[in-house]
Amino acid sequence: MFKESALANLVTGLPVLAVISLLTVLLLSGAIRNPGGYWQAAIVLYGIGFASFAAAKIHNILKGHPISFGSSLMPKPWKWAYRIGYSLMALALLLTLVLVALR
Questions:
Q1: Tally of CB atoms within 10 A around 81
Q2: pTM for this one?
Q3: Radius of gyration over alpha carbons of the chain, in Å?
Q4: Which residues have CB under 8 Å from 46's CB, separation 6+?
Q5: Calpha distance 9→13 (Å, rounded)
């Protein structure tokens, strides 16, 4: 049972991972060449990531789990929202660090 669900998570997670990886490469390569307008991209990524994360957490709280760590108690779509939110915030942090280093 666990092997099947792990394989399903891998198959469904690969496209999301590929998109986030492609976004990372494009943003970081563009920021290194011309860092001027990438601060706005970092702010947008922080905003979208936090909104996605917060929506998943609020849904979990409304379902009767006021305190939870991680996404184990969330339904599958909200798990993805939670994980994508964290991924986008991490990408925004990485972009911010690159932009600060280039300053």
A1: 21
A2: 0.74
A3: 16
A4: 88, 89, 92
A5: 6
State the residue for tokens 């108690």: 73
For 1-27, the pLDDT digits (tens) are 455 566 666 666 677 777 777 877 887
| Residue pointed to by tokens 């996404």 | 71
Cα–Cα dist 32/37, whole Å = 11
Q: Which tens digit of pLDDT belongs to each residue from 89-99? A: 998 998 888 88
DSSP assignment string, 1-37: -HHHHHHHHHHHHHHHHHHHHHHHHHHHHHHHH--TT
| DSSP code for 65 | -
Q: Is 66 exposed, middle or buried, given 0-12, 13-18 or 19+ CB atoms closer than 10 A?
A: exposed
